[in-house]
Each structure stands twice: as structure tokens, then as C-alpha cells.
User: What shape does this take?
Amino acid sequence: MEKIHVLIYLRKSRGDEEKDLENHKRTLIELCESKGYSYEICSEVGSSDSIEFRPVFSEIYDEIKNRENAYEGIVIHDYDRLSRNGKDLELIKELFLNNNIKVITPYKTYDFTNEADDLNADLMGFVAKLEFKQIKKRLKAGKIAGAKAGKWVNGTPPYGYIYNRADKTLIIDEDKARIVRYVFEEIKKGEALYNIAHSLNCRGERTSKGKLWSHTAIYRMATSHTYKGTYVYGKTKGSGHKNRKTTPIERKDSKEWIVVENAFPRIVTVELWEVVNQILKDRKLVGKKTVASLTPLSGLIRCGVCGSSMVVQKARKNKWSDTIKKCQHRDLVTNELCKNRGISVITVLNLVFDDIKNYRNELIEYLKNAEGKDKELEAIIKEIETLNKDIERYTDTLERVTDSFDEGIYTKDEYISRRNKWMGRIEVSEERIEQLEKRLKLAESVQIEDKIAVLDGIIESYNNNLSDKEINRLLKSIIKDIRLTRIGDEPLKIEINFL
Assistant: This one.
């Protein structure tokens, strides 16, 4: 008879010492040996209660999901060592149930095919969730108290500073601080943000994450209160996470901010910071006076070469003279303008409506052959949902890997290796989702008749001389963006991404 093969999972929880982990390890090994199990051991130290921040458990999760009969049981000291997050526990329980994996503790074995064990596990999960919420409240209260005391509680410090673990504050990194001062002085002289970024990139300077400087990064640096020694905490609420459903991020009223003056050593003077921010504010105000009227393609055109938005300029008198200006994006290293040329709006608009007619015909043809597609539609949706959950876990694990490196848990080589692994998985999953979403658009036969009706209305409206504003509104109801490519003497290419 073959031995039952299990995985011993050890996790250092809050309040545990190294000796506690060793005691747990010894207890679980004795348990496995007394029952005649063959076993492997995985340990996780300095981790969060949520699996989204636990790289080792995330790897175990993926192994069970992708390798049939990976383990017959997971051996842990207490049930809540799996997670105190209710959502995570449901995902874990579903995975274990689908793969016939038992959860084995020194006190009880949970078999999720057994109704009593399943109910018992749910009860344990409910208790763990309550405890998890209390922990989150204490952590939030601790962050607020720390911020009011001038302690740094915002994660990775701004460029030019180093986090001092001893007193939980910031100290100046002089090598990087000279770059910060250079940026402020250049803006004071009237230099464009694009040119400052280009200058830094040409000198071989990189951001804290090793990336090229951009005008956006320069702007964020110049507007950060930290550089004048002021700590501002709690400016926003919500998350706005791009890979999972969260509360949209919103800016709080400034009266709700926690502001601590002279919290950190200054890299620039208060006077210089104020001058620079007034300059940036004045530049913004100029832009409001030059907002152009809408054209049929306003807000829809993106460069097919670099992906930047392209400006659609409305003519003062003759609408047939509306133009799409050449791409204004500059390369971050060479500072050269993108070579994508502009063209008249009417030329592109005619091609767009030709494509809309072709798209309508494709949908009609699809309807004729749509019978028996329900199972395909269901399979596509299910796979997309699974991939999105994977991306959510991969992204959160990647963030945890970065935090672990910042905290000194991982060496630089370990960090790079783990970062590349999770970034690779995210990229593969995103590419697969993109492929599936294209198939989904043609597989959603239930909505196709409605789409055809909308397309018919848009085609008819174009022939009925509607206003530019109305045409723009209708196009935005069915089109995400239009990618335009026109390099040198090459023929114009457009690619429409329909909603």
C-alpha cells in the first residue's frame, strides 16, 4: 500500500518567535511519522495573514491547481494558519475540495467532502475572519497614530530618502538627493518636464525601480510635500486596484488629511518647493484656455506606433478641415518625436464607418451560425474569471515580494528571480485574457442583435448630418479606441477596438 503523501506548511504568525516555529515543525513531523505519511516541508517567515502577500503559499496554491495529485493532505498546526481572510479561505477550501486534499492538524482532520467537517471549517473561518477584521482595524489605527507622530508608514520611501528602521523615519540619500535638487532647480529655470526627464535618462540616471524617467515621474516628484519636510498622510480613500474589484480611489478633502510639518529632513527649501509648485500650477491654468471643441473623433485616436493619445484639432470655420495632428510623444531616451504623421479627420472618419459596416456584417454572419455556442460562451467566461483571479494573486504576491526585499527578507538575487517569475505569469495571463475577450465579443450571441441595432443607428445617423458632438457620443458608445498608423509614405492603417 502506497504511503499518503502530504505537505507540512509552517507559517510564522504575529507574536510567534523562532522557537515557536521550531516547536510546530517538530510536532507536525512527529504527527506525520506516527501516521506513516511521506512528507515535504515548506516554511514561510515574515508573512501576512492574507495569502495575497505570501509568496510561498501562492506557489503551493498554483502547484495544487496545475499538478494533479500534488498532495493528499496539507499538514498545519492550526486551521487559521491557512488564512484569516474569509475570501482566501473560501478559495483554499474550494481548491482542496476539487483536488480531494484534506487539512490535517494535531487536533482534527478536515475532509471537505464530509458535511460536518465542511460546516466546522466554515465556523473556524468565520471566527478567523472576525479576528482578521480586528487586526486590520488595529493596523489602521497604528498607521494613523504613527503618521501623527511623524513616523513613515507609507511603504517604499520617496526617491532621495532611505527608510530608517530604528526610529521608523526617513533619512536623506545624498546620491539621489542631488537629482531631486537638480529637478527642482531646472523647473524653477522654466525647463519643460519632458526635457528634464530626457536629461536624466541620457546621464544614465534611473528611478528607484530602475526605470527610465518620464515627465509624469518628474511631476510627481516636484509636487511631493515630503521633499520640503512635510508629511501628508491619508490624502485618498479607496484602492482603485487595476486587477481586482475594490472601492474606487477618491481624493479626500484637505481638512481630513494628517499633516505633520518638519517631520523629515528637507531635501529642498520650503521656498523653492512653493516657487516650483506655483510654476506647475500656472502651466496647468494656461491649458484650460485652449480646450478645443469636439470633433467626431475627439478622445478616440491613439498612436499605432507608441500608443499615446493623438490630438484632434477642430478647424475654426470649415469642419472638413478638422485634422488629427502628428503624434507629440517624445522618446524618453533620445527625446525624439514619434514619427507617426497626422491626417484629416474626414479621411479617417470615412474608413471608420466602412469598418463599422464590415463589423455589422460579421455580426450578422455570426448570428446565422450561433446555435450551439452557449457552452463555448460559458467556457470562455469561466476561463477569463479564473485568469483574473490568478492575476489578482500574482500581482499581490509581486507586491509582497517587493516589500520583502525592502524589509531585507530577500536578497537582491532572490528578489529579481521571484519578481521575474511573477511578472512573467501576469504577462502570460493578460495575453490569454486578451485573446479570450476577442473571442468573447463574437461568442456573446445574446447581445449581438442589440449590437447590430446600435450599429444600424450609428450608420444611419452618419448619413443624416448629425452634429459632431452627437456623432462623437455615438462612436464612443461602441468604440474603445482607434489606433492610427501613418509612417512616411506607407499607406494609412487604422485598427478599431470595439467595446
Notes: The chain has three domains: 5-144, 161-288, 301-498.
